[in-house]
Specification:
mainly beta
Length: 222
């Protein structure tokens, strides 16, 4: 997807050169979990990614109103592990010697491109310019999954358990998901020489899974 995003921003830069156009970079850090329904599970870990970064472009429409488009990349990881005891069929619930310990693990490594398209309104002119923005965000998530289920008992117990069809050392697969939802933010813009710096807090509500996401970021544009 990266090979599509960069040409889009270059094309916007060329076609908007005659207008009031700015181009730069946005970078920030997610505040909320990328997988809100998973991080409460026992023996699990969610790494939301320490940063998000990508190009940003803005075209002034009229007055204090402008249109902004970003292409922000982030990565995150989810891991879960658990252990339990299985009782083979026919062993009986009171036969402790027939209990077979099982260990399972699961991991997701995800890469996500977020494409917010926003209308931005600066509240007034001056050295410090507060602004609000709102619009819609499209996202593409590419994930690699790995999982395993292993018998921790003796070889005889595992082979005699009748559960061997469910044991596998490792399995992997790949998936791609498109997400979308509304986005809005509030921030403050100021200038340092020719550079415009705009710290912002942005909220998005993306589906698949439904998630409220908050990101603290800053834009650096010329």
């Amino acid at each position: 997807m990266r090979t599509r995003i960069i040409p889009i921003f270059l094309a916007v830069a060329l076609t908007a050169s005659a207008q009031r156009f700015t181009f730069g970079v946005k970078a920030g850090a997610p505040v909320t979990s990328a997988l809100p329904n998973e991080d409460s599970a026992p023996y699990s870990m969610v790494d939301t990614g320490r940063w998000t970064v990508g190009p940003t472009a803005e075209v002034r429409l009229f007055g204090n109103l402008s249109f902004e488009g970003d292409a922000l990349f982030r990565g995150y990881r989810y891991e879960q592990s658990s252990g339990f005891n299985a009782i083979p069929s026919g062993a009986g619930l009171t036969n402790i010697n027939s209990v077979v310990p099982i260990f399972s693990s699961f991991r997701q490594d995800a890469k996500e491109w977020d494409i917010p398209l926003l209308l931005k309104y600066r509240l007034h002119a001056g050295p410090l310019r507060p602004f609000v923005d709102a619009g819609f965000e499209f996202a593409h998530v590419s994930s690699d999954f790995t999982s395993s289920t292993t018998c921790l008992g003796t070889a005889d117990a595992c082979n005699a358990s009748g559960l061997t069809a469910f044991f596998y050392p490792s399995a992997s697969y790949h998936s791609s998901v498109n997400r979308r939802g509304p986005a809005a933010g509030v921030g403050l813009e100021f200038k340092y020489g020719r550079l415009r710096i705009a710290p912002e807090v942005r909220y998005t509500r993306l589906d698949r899974p439904n998630a409220n996401e908050v990101t603290v970021m800053a834009g650096f544009t010329f």
